[in-house]
Amino acid sequence: FYCSYVKKSENEVLAVIRDINSRKQAELALENELRFNSIISSLSMKFITCGEDEIDLILNDALAEAGLYFGVDRVYIFEFDYQNRTMSNTYEWCAEGVSSEIDNLQNIEMDLFPDLMDKLLNKRIFTIENVNELNDKPLKEILQQQGILSIIIYPIFVENECFGYVGFDSVKSFRKFSQKEISFLSLFSSL
């Protein structure tokens, strides 16, 4: 609230109280949008100008920046090995107090998760608000072993072939991922 007053006379004061919550919310939304656009622009510029030896550092920084901005617990990239029909976690960022799973997620058989693979190979997003309600038993087990409550995964395509995916995990609380998070993953996957 904003309050101003004017003394009209010795015994009278005129006070104006204005609710500025909607204005403050609009300012915060604008700041948030500017920060989002700044992150995307910065990442794009880094990827355009980086040398091959800098890619690992830039990817790790990008995952951290995304994780902190969106307040998720884990952000990662998986890459597919079609020859061996496996997938491996190649990059990962974790929030403070969240366990790293990258070492546990190497050379996982792609064929264990036909529904997930079908979605990703067909350029569709995979999102689960409550892993406990997942019907795919092998996928449910591997996600629960990591403490994941909610998950969103977006495929990464390189020259019309699914290279892997980028994803967000929520392990501290159940979460419905927003359109902004989906948009970010879409943009990130195309960098």
Briefly summarize what is shown.
With 191 residues, the chain is an alpha+beta fold. The protein has helices at 21-49, 55-70, 114-121, 137-145, 179-189; strands at residues 2-7, 13-18, 74-81, 86-94, 108-109, 126-128, 150-158, 161-170. It has five helices and eight strands; from the N terminus they run E-E-H-H-E-E-E-H-E-H-E-E-H.
Account of the 3D structure:
- It is a single chain.
- By secondary structure, the protein is α+β, with helices and mostly antiparallel strands.
- It is 38% helix and 28% strand.
- It is built from five helices and eight strands.
- A six-stranded antiparallel beta sheet has the order 5-4-3-8-7-6, sandwiched between helices.
- Strand 7 and strand 8 form a beta hairpin.
- Helix 1 packs antiparallel against helix 2 (55-70).
- The radius of gyration is 22 Å and the shape is elongated.
- The mean pLDDT is 88.
Tally of helical runs: 5
Main-sheet strand order equals 5-4-3-8-7-6
* Radius of gyration from CA coordinates: 22 Å
The best one-word shape is elongated
Helix/sheet category? alpha+beta
Determine the N-to-C terminus distance.
43 Å
Low-pLDDT residue intervals, each spanning 5 or more residues: none
Blueprint of the fold:
Blueprint: E1 2-7, E2 13-18, H1 21-49, H2 55-70, E3 74-81, E4 86-94, E5 108-109, H3 114-121, E6 126-128, H4 137-145, E7 150-158, E8 161-170, H5 179-189
Antiparallel strand pairs: 1-2, 3-4, 3-8, 4-5, 6-7, 7-8
